[in-house]
Amino acid sequence: MTSIDTLSRPLVHRARTLAGLAVCAVAVAIASSIGLALGIVAHILSWPVLDVPGVSLVLVIVAAATGYGVGRTRPIATSALLLRADVGLGTEARLSTLHAIGDRHDLQPYAVRIAAGLSARPLTPHIALPIPRKVIALLAAGITIALATVVLMAALPDPRAQAPYPGPVPGALLPTDVPSRRASAGLSPTDPAHAQASSDGLAAKAPASTAPAASGSASEESDVDVVDLPTRPQSTLSLEETLQQIEGHVAADQESTLSDSELAALRSFADAAPSPLAEALRELMAASKRAETLARVRAVLARPDVAAQTGTRSREAPSADSGLEPVAVAAGPEGESALTPAGLPASTPEEPSGHGKYPFFDEPTGGPAEITLIGSTLPSAIGTAGEYSYYVTKSVPVEPPVADPSTPAGTPLSLSFERATSIAASRALPSDVLGAVRAYFTQITEGGP
Amino acid sequence: MITEAELQRASRAMSTLQTAVGEVIVGHDDVIRATLIALLCRGNVLLEGVPGLGKTLLVRALAHATGLRFSRIQFTPDLMPADIVGTDIISEADGRRQFQFSPGPIFANVVLADEVNRATPKTQSALLEAMEERTVTVGTHTYALEEPYVVLATENPIEMEGTYPLPEAQLDRFMLKAVVTFPDLDQLVEIVTRTTEGEGIRLPRTDVTAQDILLAREVARQIPIADAVRTYIGRLVSATHPSSLLSPTSVRDFISYGASPRAAIALTLAAKANAFLDGQAHVRPIDIERLFRPVFAHRLILNFRGESEGASVDSILGDVWKKVPLAS
Description:
Radius of gyration of chain B: 21 Å
Shape of chain A: rod-shaped
Distance between the termini of chain A: 84 Å
Largest sheet of chain B: 5 strands, parallel
Largest sheet of chain A: 3 strands, antiparallel
Strand order of the largest sheet of chain B: 2-5-8-1-9
Number of helices of chain B: 15
Oligomer: heterodimer
Strand content of chain A: under 5%
Number of helices of chain A: 15
């Protein structure tokens, strides 16, 4: 006759595993709930340093391991366990009764009969002690919540990219001594500052060779690189932008003429435009050779009524009567940019002053782009720490903080984050890239930390 | 220590007795089983049923089959305790007069107390000592009753006028309460056939002796029971008390007093006897289930709300059974 100890050993082992699973399930459910709550709170409060999915996963794994260990070491009431096994196996309390008889010799005639009833039945532990549904449900719920936390947190935008709009940055002037300062700072694309800027979300396409050394310390500044931005949909472009795109692509491609989409876009503009402009556009559409197309595009672009067809965006350039006197201009490679006396570009901040050659926004693909920085020295009236230099590219949407036309030269400018956001949105920028854009503007207007 | 031979002998004797009584009584297997369990466990049975269902025949058949002494007491309102336990009478021997004890009908092995609730509580209580202690005290003398001894009392559930409900203390001394139900049509036809043809009913005679019954009693008492099953019985008893955390809502609402520890003892012993009668060597959960209601039914006391709302003890016991799981 097999002893009850031998019979019950696998059952006790199974019971320990189940006890471990039971505590593990509770721990996982609690930990995953805490992880989810943590994620929600972290997102609401925008805790930038907390990696919620990672923390949640680690929390669940640690809780599961600890719970399983604790559960396995809990004491087991053998008689009750064997009765449960009896119920599971249908052995009518034989196992638990044999355990109760133990080594009592006076009950051996009974024990022999009971054991005889057991011998014909396989004592399969997983049938005797199945995993309780409650445990399965708890485990499933816990794992589901944990996975949902990870997925949810990954799907939610990074709180760092969702930081509230801080408002225009005052004091953004156009410094005039960029080249010399850049040279004196001795920065190169391999500087740590450059790497820092890249890690902050600026996908480095090309190093900004003219990045500023605002405070004179190379470690406190960051280079501004050009971001590879998605091309803006044709349907959202204004007439002028469309023409600039056409000019760019026709000028770049020796074989090319107008594409179907460009023809369609021009046709829609022509239908809506007043008669002279519509006629010019139709002539452009009718051009069959590249040179002719290029010439007609430029001719249309030169028309004063093109700006009136640009849609919702303000296209008013600062006028000569703004009271601003010309200052030094660091022209781009093509030399098409001009600044107002206070450092304003000749065109409005968001308008491409170089016929579609925004250093930041209008270099979607291709090789390294040059960012032309226009620098000026901050007047000593601003700030308390001495000389500050602020740098903006020719396409940075700056605006004078004071509408007074008599504003003297050197008056601090402001970066218009609203305009920058508008431009970025019109380019269908993802939210994380918007964060990078914001960081870029912040860097160049604050001159580094 | 019980030997295998004794175990087999006791098992064979009870099987023979069960068969013999079953041949006389048509149906009522549960009542026969309850009577045998009481015999094996040194208990007493309260039989509830209308007259004419064969209760007396059952008891007589049991006594006749085992050669045990049988007596029947018809309880009436004017029945006196002395009519049951006996009395001292003056006798004259060798020219001297002296009191001599004349034993009453309670001095037998199998006693049928018919319609026990018709006698006054004073007379009913004359049974208490015999039922529990197996002794009878008259005056200053205490007389031991001969074993095996069992009292089977009957109650008529429909004629309640002029009756004296049994006090709780006496109810608790009945190990089991068996309800004798009206036979179904086939059983009724069979009863008519057996009693109206041939020689009529012949009481069985077997070779089972009182010694065999005492041996069977010993064997049944030794039937092992698992600790967890014993704990289960304890939980069942606890759940009948309104103050227990295990008790269902119906117990809290309608029960004044739950089952006593004597109920736990009775259920354990009855389960052992039932397993033994089934030829098993250990107490099974099914033994508990079969005897849960017969052991507990007369031990739960309804409170005023339960009485006024007509709460059923049987239904409440069903709630208790559902509320307490076997393996937790």
